[in-house]
Structure formats: structure tokens, C-alpha cells
Design brief:
The protein starts with 11 loop residues before the first helix and ends with a helix. The protein has helices at residues 12-29, 35-50, 68-73, 81-86. It is an all-alpha fold. It is globular, with a radius of gyration of 13 Å.
């Protein structure tokens, strides 16, 4: 039984969409000319490595699903907006 908060987790179509977004963002950042670009690129690359993991899209802190809207803007996000605000 999937916990209620993981039911709206990213599905395979969302994953495909996010994967494309990551690749587009990586392309745009290439070559990474400044420290911000380098950091963003490293984060996007790890997101690309994690994207096929079952837990992709789940918050590292509370394990609830990170909203798709948030992932579309920040595909490398590892915590949800609620946890981010609580920090
Ligand atoms: Zn959270």
C-alpha cells in the first residue's frame, strides 16, 4: 500500500517531462561560466541521476511529494516548499 502522500508522486510522464527540462536547462548553462552556473549544473546532473529512482520527487525531509509545479521550475529540488519555508 502506497502511503497517501506518495500517491501524487511523479508518474512516468512527469519524469519524462522533467528529464527534458533538465536537459534543456543543462544545455542553456553550458559552458558553466560562473560559480552559480557550476553549482546549478552539478545539482541538475544529480537530479538527472536520481530521476529514475522510485523516490524522485519525494521530499528528503518529510517524504511528501514535491509539487510538480515546483519540480518544473526547480527540477533539482530535494525538499518540498513547506520544509523549505520551515528552515
Ligand atoms: Zn518536505
Amino acid at each position: 500500500m502506497v502511503p497517501f502522500f506518495l500517491r501524487r508522486a511523479v508518474n512516468k510522464y512527469d519524469r519524462a517531462e522533467i528529464k527534458k527540462l533538465i536537459l534543456t536547462q543543462l544545455e542553456r548553462l553550458s559552458p558553466p561560466c560562473g560559480p552559480w552556473e557550476q553549482l546549478k549544473m552539478a545539482r541538475l546532473e544529480t537530479a538527472l541521476m536520481r530521476i529514475d529512482c522510485e523516490k524522485f520527487g519525494a521530499c528528503f525531509k518529510c517524504e511528501k511529494s514535491i509539487s510538480l509545479e515546483r519540480l518544473r521550475i526547480n527540477p533539482e529540488a530535494v525538499i518540498c516548499s513547506a520544509c523549505l519555508e520551515a528552515e
